[in-house]
């Protein structure tokens, strides 16, 4: 019923009306051997997970809450590349469906007018030298009105409908996200991360700017120089030391 145009992505779909988290289900399915391209999607998440231990607000029927299982033949250090790849694919899909060009804030927030509209959470099952599966969790705020966001996040969160001024068909956007994701993923497996990195830089807002990176171990202030070939953020602090950052929140 999603009308997919992909070769493999989304050809096994686990649809549920209500789940705690699609991410949790996808991790379990991956562990049990589910094929690459398996998609878990739900109308409502009661315990949607965000990055850095946060919650992801996932009310019924207004957004896209889904997790995709990939099995790329890569070592675990390269997994952050897939997060960046996913962000590019989603930007392309949003552009295609709504005409709006989003911004990416490293590593994986997608912003419209400076407010977050999409979150991506990548989780791994891996040995030190080989990835078994990567679970790509995607949350897109599609049709929420301002009032439907909890008050404490209204100044930082938005939906496509708010920015576009009209409702958007979720199935159409799911199709397009999976299509763009599959295309980029094949390109990535054939040609590596370089071409994806260039596309990513085209959408990125934080590069070249003074930012504060809040990591789990404290904050670092400096200039965002760019990303490495692995997908880490290079941040030059006031003493000209370069920090390579795996995971953080960025403030512009
Ligand atoms: C972030 O913190 O920005 C990442 C949010 C990721 C949310 C998605 S919604 C589908 C999938 N299931 C979850 O529990 N989380 C991800």
Automatic annotation (TrEMBL):
Gene Ontology terms, MF aspect: ATP binding; biotin--[biotin carboxyl-carrier protein] ligase activity; DNA binding; transferase activity
Gene Ontology biological process: protein lipoylation; regulation of DNA-templated transcription
Taxonomic superkingdom: Bacteria
Record key words, sorted: ATP-binding, Biotin, DNA-binding, Ligase, Nucleotide-binding, Repressor, Transcription, Transcription regulation
Keyword presence, Lipid metabolism: no
GO CC terms: cytoplasm
Keyword Repressor in annotation: yes
EC number(s) on file: 6.3.4.15
Residues noted as binding biotin in the record, renumbered to the chain: 45, 49-51, 116
Catalytic reaction list: biotin + L-lysyl-[protein] + ATP = N(6)-biotinyl-L-lysyl-[protein] + AMP + diphosphate + H(+)
Domain BPL/LPL catalytic: residue ranges: 1-189
Family: Belongs to the biotin--protein ligase family.
Function in brief: Acts both as a biotin--[acetyl-CoA-carboxylase] ligase and a repressor.
Name of the protein: Bifunctional ligase/repressor BirA
Gene: birA
